[in-house]
Amino acid sequence: MIGKIGRRLLGVSLLAIVTGCNQTDKTTDLGVSSGQQAASQQPAVIQGACPQVYLREGTAVHRTYAKGAKDDPQKLIYQATLAATTRQCVQTANELKVTVLAQGRIVSGPAGNPGAVTLPIRVAASDGENTLYSNLNKFSVTIPAEGTAQFVFTEANIVIPGGAGSYAKIYVGFDEGPYNTK
Predict the structure, then answer these.
(1) Are the beta carbons of 51 and 170 closer than 8 angstroms?
(2) Each residue of 25-62: pLDDT tens digit?
(3) Among 141, 125, 130, which residue's Cα sits nearest to residue 82?
C-alpha cells in the first residue's frame, strides 16, 4: 500500500516538474516576449567590429639585469616574453568595452632566483594618431624553482568610442613608462 502511494506521489511530482519546465514566455504589451525583452537589454558580444590586438615591435620582450649590468647574459635576472593575444568586445549604445588577454612566458636567468617579479605591461588603443586608451599595469608573476613559467595577462573594461572598433588598433607590450595614464 505504501509503495503504491509513493509511486503516485512520485508520478505527480514528476508531472509538476515537467509542467513547470514547459512554460512559455509571457507576452508584454508591446507583443515582445519577456525572454526576448531581457535579451535585447543585454549588450551584444561582437567580434566583427572588435579591434585587432597587436604586439608592438620591440615591446614583446622584457629583460631585467643585475645592478650595473646591461646586455650581459651572465647578469640576466629574468626574461619575459609576450607571444599570443586575443580580445573580446561588448557593444553598448555609445561605447565598445574590450577585454584583452596576452599569453606570456618568464624565464629565470643566470643571476635570477625563484620568486615574485613585477612586469610593466601597457595596453593602448589608438585610432590613427588619436590615443583612445592607455594604461600601464604592474603585473605580478612568480618565477618557480624550475626557473620558467607561463602566464596570462588580462585587462578588462577597456572603453573606447562605439564607432571606433573597425578603425582602432589595440597594442600590448612591455613598457617602462609612467603608470596609469588612462
Answers:
(1) yes
(2) 333 444 444 445 444 455 555 556 789 999 988 999 99
(3) 141
HEC assignment per residue over the chain: CHHHHHHHHHHHHHHHHHHHHCCCCCECCCCCEHHHHHHHHCCEEECCCCCEEEECCCCCEEEEECCCCCCCHHHEEEEEEEEEEEEEEEECCCEEEEEEEEEEEEEECCCCCCEEEEEEEEEEEEECCEEEEEEEEEEEEEECCCCEEEEEEEEEEEEEEHHHCCCCEEEEEECCCCCCCC
Which residues on neighbouring strands pair with residue 107, listed in sequence order?
79, 148
State pLDDT tens for residues 122-161.
999 998 888 999 999 999 999 999 999 999 999 998 999 8
Whole-prediction pTM: 0.71
The Cβ of residue 23 has, within 10 Å, a number of other Cβ atoms equal to 7
Pairing of strands 130-143, 148-161: unpaired
State the residue for C-alpha cell 512520485: 10
Which amino acid, one-letter code, is at 51? P
- Bridge partners for 124 per DSSP: 134, 171
pLDDT at 93 over 90: no
Per-residue pLDDT at 179 exceeds 80: no
